[in-house]
Write a structure and sequence with these properties.
alpha/beta, 7-stranded mixed β-sheet, two-stranded antiparallel sheet, 9 strands, 42% helix, disordered C terminus
């Protein structure tokens, strides 16, 4: 879909009709339900091991490795952006010509340049979110550059068999999450980042980005379908375009409601401009979010399912974790 209301970018008639479609159709998603099953042993170090329920173990793991998460602190995992191919494209090509082992040897300069643009865009968005949450003292946890496969979900089923029904409905084998932002007492925000430096094919790129958000929300619904009981936990879908200006959204007839789900270069100028965008998005969903019961316990348990001891990977924060300058 081109945007949450599926009409913007194709001459949407008015923001009112778009808002009605938003409520029916897809800028936010309610995630699933918990019965605690399965137990695991978790090693906290120094010979300290405990036998805990699966979700208690995940919660303890996150609390142990990411302290102060109950306070107004932002964490990221990994703590900084990690480039797949360090170095500029010309240097990578030069190294490969000189016989160095370069994983991207099969790609040409143009492909490397596109990959680098995408990575730079993701780093810009990550850095600014970290600065914004830190400056405005908002509790948040950002998981970024997260690649998942159904092999992880099968592993999860071994300890949480109640997920089997959701797993069968997923219908996709793998995916990548650019940014997943968990904001306790508020919601989850999925951000898909696209580096667009021209207007050609603009609507199609944005459409595919929101489709990727849908794919991510389906994965998260599968991972957490037994986690939330009857609690309302909302997931908001956002596309970040660090190289595009807000005038372009107007040019392509994106309504006001849909535009609030898109981050542009103006929003990323400073921590304050991004906070203004964030407040606008939250205000748009105030009615839903006022009903949210996404407390710190559920927040930690979800994060634990993604990065905890039985997840795809165990990633611990840097000892002196600080927001990048």
């Amino acid at each position: 879909m081109a945007s949450p209301c599926a009409h913007c970018g194709d001459g949407a008639p008015s923001s009112t009709s778009c808002i009605e479609l938003l409520q029916q159709n897809g800028d936010s998603k309610l995630l699933g339900r918990i019965r605690e099953r399965g137990t695991i042993h978790i090693d906290f170090g120094a010979g300290h091991r405990e036998h805990l329920s699966f979700d208690d173990a995940n919660e303890r793991y996150v609390t142990h490795h990411f302290p102060q998460s109950d306070e107004r602190v932002v964490h990221a995992c990994p703590p900084v952006y990690e480039y797949v191919h360090p170095g500029e494209p010309p240097d990578i090509i030069k190294d490969s010509e000189q016989g160095a082992e370069v994983p991207f040897l099969k790609f040409n300069y143009d492909t490397l340049q596109r990959e680098r643009m995408g990575e730079v865009a993701e780093e810009i968005v990550l850095r600014m979110f970290l600065k914004m949450f830190e400056k405005h003292k908002i509790s948040a946890f950002i998981v970024h550059g997260y690649n998942w496969k159904t092999s992880y979900l099968k592993k999860l089923l071994d300890i949480q068999p109640s997920l089997s029904k959701s797993f069968k409905k997923l219908g996709i084998n793998e995916g990548e999450i650019d940014l997943l932002i968990s904001i306790p007492k508020k919601c989850l925000v999925v951000v898909e980042v696209k580096a667009i430096n021209h207007k050609n094919n603009f609507t199609n790129v944005v459409r595919k980005a929101f489709a990727q958000c849908d794919k991510t929300s389906n994965f998260l619904s599968t991972v957490a379908s037994d986690l939330y009981g009857n609690k309302n936990i909302w997931l908001l879908k956002v596309v970040a375009l660090p190289s595009s200006c807000r005038d372009t959204l107007t040019e392509f007839n994106y309504c006001q409601a849909c535009s609030r789900h898109i981050i542009t270069e103006e929003d990323l100028n400073t921590a304050n401009t991004l906070h203004d965008w964030y407040k606008t998005l939250i205000d748009l969903h105030k009615t839903e979010l006022d009903d949210s019961l996404f407390d710190n316990c559920l927040h930690k348990r979800l994060i634990g399912r993604l990065i905890g001891p039985y997840s795809l990977t165990e990633v611990k924060p840097a000892k002196d974790e600080k927001t990048p300058e």
